[in-house]
Amino acid sequence: MAEHHAHAAASHDDHDHKPHGWRRWVYATNHKDIGTMYLIFACTMFFIGGGAAMLIRLELFQPGLQFLDPQFFNSLTTMHALIMIFGAVMPAWTGLANWMIPMQVGAPDMALPRLNNFSFWILPFAFTLLISSFFVPGGAPAGGWTMYPPLVLQNGASFPMLIFSVHLMGASSILGAINVVVTIMNMRAPGMTLLRMPLFVWTWLITAYLLIAVMPVLAGAVTMLLTDHFFGTTFFTAAGGGDPVMFQHIFWFFGHPEVYILILPAFGIVSEIIPTFSRKPLFGYEAMVYAVASIAFLSFIVWAHHMFTVGMPLAAQLFFMLSTMLIAIPTGVKVFNWTATMWKGSLSFEPPMLFALAFLFLFTIGGFSGLMLAMVPADYQYQDTYFVVAHFHYVLVPGAIFGIMAGVYYWLPKWTGRMYDLKLATWHFWLSAIFVNVLFFPQHFLGLAGMPRRIPDYAVQFTDWNMVSSIGGFAFGLAQLLFPYIVIKCIRAGQPIGNRAWEGAHGLEWELPSPPPYHSWTTPPSAAVIARGAAH
Amino acid sequence: MTMRKQLARLVLSAAAAALALPAAAAEESGWAQLNLPQGVTDISRKIYALHMEIFWVCVWIGVVVFGAMIYSIVRFRKSKGAVADTSLVHNTKVEVIWTVIPVIILVAMAVPAARTLVEIEDTTKTGLTIKVTGFQWGWEYEYLDDGVTYYSHLDRLSDAARELGSGIDPASVPHYLLNVDRPLVVPNGVKVRLLITGADVIHSWWVKDLGVKKDAIPGFVNEAWFKVDDTFTGMLRGNCAELCGRDHGFMPIVVDVRTKADFDTWLKNTAAEQKQAAAPAATPTATTPASAG
Questions:
Q1: Which of B110, B121, B168 comes nearest A314 by C-beta?
Q2: Which pLDDT score, from 0 to 100, does residue B289 have?
Q3: Using 50, 70 and 90 to split pLDDT, how confident is the model at A535?
Q4: B242 to chain A: which residues are within 8 Å by CB?
Q5: CATH class for domain B36-120?
Q6: Mean of all residue pLDDT scores within chain A
Q7: What angle do CA A313, A375, A203 make, to 5 degrees?
Q8: Which of B69, B97, B170, B204 has a CA 20 to 30 Å removed from the CA of A353?
Q9: Distance CA A91, CA A69 (A)
Q10: Could you report the per-residue pLDDT of B221-251, keeping only the tens digit for each?
């Protein structure tokens, strides 16, 4: 596609002679090629995980079991979560990091290109292994993505496949995170000081540290499961002096930072998009950076709020309640700052801005239900009901997923040099934003009225809201098909566009041509260019 | 009830007609299933009050924050000729205010939550102790001081209707998936202590009207308690709340609340029945010490 670059550039230090055909992708060391592969992989997993969600909503459309065996239903909920978290959202963030971080900090590429190749190519194998477990005796893992023992040990042949694929995903994430840290710390252009970095780079830096800190913890936990199952240890078996609740503590020590790994880069993207389409610099840049850092710190001391019903000492419950409530403060600061960024701005509503605004409203709703869940006595009633399902889907779908959509719609013209069909993308937005609420808002009611989560069938008084939720689910799922169509159409036939795709866009990526050269900044941007980019 | 109505009106004005139904009828009507029930214990009502408090706090914060967002979106549109004030990037006073106000709100919420929690954790001075064991898939109840033990499973009508492609309309089954063959029988007006454990995997014993949800963990014993209002008798229904395998969705909990006198009679009769049923199996010499407990 961009073959002419290789011949046009005669200079010695231009490494633009990329291999062609399949070698370009299998041997890929270029941040853009690897970023593209990450994004295609994430999109594929988004539709596979979404397919599982459609089956779940189909079975839950009405009471009674119509289509699925309960065990298979449990496999679907388990696999939906694993695929969406580790296959869709995390690789999408790494893909965006690959594309954008070198461009945004003024670097030619990621610092560790071969590691980059390795960290991507682990993923297709990890997920082939995981998804193929549907076809082994006993079916796919059905104990929930949280993998609580002793239940998880009851899985059949899928159990070691689950453990090994989780190890692979963890390894991939750690390698990707190391690459991000090394790139940001070492490859910034002269003059690109830490406090001049765009928020997307900042949030990814903090996310990368979280990944490096907690993925090994997950690996340790699942390894203990493995030895409990095959080698006669009893880490999590009371009969041998172990404790099943200890697994939950270790898992959620990973799990809560993991939640922020999924959402912090979205904070970064929204912090880029809202200023662009408000034509006004981000309000309180430094406060935003400190807020993200505080959230990341707090994520290490709140884990047990996922397990208030396991029977912890009173003092522990009080501690985890208070530490959880503290998170509302930096999160509030972020929401207020985004709002203040729009205040006295000059707003326009292109698709990235629409997705960012939906993020702002709907993530805040997820934050509210999170605050409610922090109150331990009330949590006793919410825990493991559809209220929790509604809560985390509000922060993950209109939170993380809309953040990814916003990011893709924001930077797609930069990547391709072409503008996508704005009208169609606006349709994609409105259908998504409306039906995500039809899908998830009634689940708050279901949870409060007493419907437990992870059940394939329910009492008849829950029928009406489940039907509404399923209809919202099908419509939301269908609307997502627009997304790959819009992207492909843009690549093939979009209108060519200049360097600065959006009128109010600031940042180094907009100083490069669209599409950018194969190696983004072969010479560092000048101080003037950096100053123009850092608009705050 | 008024709070509940207000909430319902706020979130779904379309269901307003259904909300006119009295509480008992609301139990059956799907559209009116919008909120936590108040329950039948002092604790469950305190939890409900806490839930509504934090809900309204969220609503009011939402009104202010969403109001500011919507105002910005409407008022500062480029298409309406709005010009950006690019100098507005920082304001220490405002930033301090919107950090301090949430702190105050959080402290105000934490105090009643902590107070209720302390009360919930006070398992002293109980009048009756029942051991609850979750297993795949049902519950075992053991009245520790009276030698009464029995199992509680999904009732047979629900069990038949829930088979894949059973052809039985769930709506035709009374209390579909919320009915059991033998409910847990408890007295009202008595502080009942539950000792909760699991036999195989982790389960969770949850009856929302009692405000109790506690995990049943194999190898460990958790404590919980409830004291039903002495004005209430009747059936309360709940579920296992922790994924526990294939039939996790099919192990409901039913609590049959009776007056103290009715309960005592039931307990005495059941104890006698169970002793009689066990007698032929045991040798005559073994019966005497076994019955002493």
A1: B121
A2: 44
A3: low
A4: 148, 309, 384
A5: mainly alpha
A6: 94
A7: 100
A8: B97
A9: 31
A10: 999 999 999 999 999 999 999 999 999 999 9
Locate B262 and state its tokens. Answer: 């009715």
Q: Provide φ and ψ at A129, rounded to 5°.
A: -60, -50
pLDDT at A21: 87
Catalytic residue, chosen from A38, A93, A260, A420, is A260
Cβ(B50)–Cβ(B113) below 8 Å: yes
Instruction: Name the residue among A419, A488, A513 with its Cα closest to residue A5.
Output: A513
Residue A240 tokens, joined: 């041998």
Residue B74 CB partners (closer than 8 Å, separation 6+)? none
Are residues A151 and B243, on separate chains, in Cβ contact within 8 Å?
A: yes
Interchain proximity B30–A461, CB inside 8 Å: yes
Chosen from B175, B246, B250, B251 to mutate, greatest number of chain A CBs within 10 A: B246
A80 tagged catalytic: yes
Please give the single-letter amino acid code of residue A146. T
Q: How many CB pairs under 8 A join A and B?
A: 296
Domain residue limits, chain B: 36-120, 128-280
CATH code for B128-280? 2.60.40.420
pLDDT confidence of residue A17: 66
DSSP calls for A312-342? --HHHHHHHHHHHHHTHHHHHHHHHHHHHHH
Q: Which DSSP symbol is given to B193?
A: E
**More confident of the two residues B284 and A316:** A316
Sign of CA dihedral B6, B11, B14, B18: negative
